[in-house]
Specification:
single chain; alpha/beta; 5-stranded mixed β-sheet
């Protein structure tokens, strides 16, 4: 299959291209530069594969949760390309894509993204027989000290939420066997999670490719900042 994948929900801007059995990818930590990087990355991958956009069979996108502007960018670009090229879209949880960054080979994985404003986006996963992470909790946003983790463990924790709130999270998780706070959702993993859906003939039309924010508030008010 020929699938383009986009993930810009965090500081990492990444694009991947599935080209037959090969996955080509570009990724850069570039806060506030996603808008200028993502399309050139896509064009670079297509050129490397010797393809045009018209050869694509589908687009996969990280639909959040994550930074509002990054999630909106990925969804809007995906909708525009999918509409112009009449392609199906598969939306993938950015937290699930992050869970695939776990490399300690543990079955229980907690993906946590720093949501700013004293909160984290979080979801728990269990590794399936095929190696892909399957959700075992709802996606959640809130203070790290209020996180509720399902029964299980030992846990491997991945994501920037750990880098910022390790102590609070450790008190809620219990048995943390491995952790890495320098991991981000990547388009390569978005593509891998979307491929089984595409192969089964799934996907939605461009207008039904929707973001998931988990919360509506973008920033703290000045009064709220003063209380922190």
């Amino acid at each position: 299959m020929k699938i383009l994948a986009i993930e810009t929900s965090t500081e990492a801007c990444s694009v991947a291209l599935v080209h037959g059995e090969e996955i080509l990818a570009r990724s850069e930590l570039a806060p506030r530069r996603h808008g200028e990087l993502v399309l050139p990355m896509a064009d670079s991958l297509l050129a490397e594969a010797g393809m045009s956009r018209h050869a694509l069979e589908g687009i996969a996108v990280g639909r959040g949760p994550g930074a509002f502007t990054g999630v909106r960018l990925a969804i809007s670009l995906t909708q525009g390309m999918a509409m112009a090229l009449d392609l199906p879209v598969v939306t993938v949880s950015s937290l699930q894509a992050l869970a695939m960054e776990e490399d300690a080979d543990l079955n229980d994985i907690l993906a946590v993204i720093d949501a700013r404003m004293g909160e984290v986006y979080a979801a728990a996963y269990r590794r399936r027989a095929d190696g892909l992470p399957e959700p075992c909790s709802d996606e959640w946003v809130g203070p790290p000290a209020s996180l509720v983790v399902p029964a299980g463990g030992p846990w491997s924790v991945v994501g920037t939420g750990w880098a910022t709130y390790a102590e609070q999270l450790r008190g809620r998780i219990g048995d943390v066997a491995a952790h890495d706070g320098a991991r981000y959702p990547q388009a390569r993993n978005v593509a891998l999670l979307a491929l089984p859906v595409f192969r089964a003939g799934g996907g939605v039309s461009a207008e039904h490719a929707l973001p998931v924010y988990l919360r509506d508030k973008v920033a703290l008010t000045l009064a709220e900042q003063g209380k922190r």
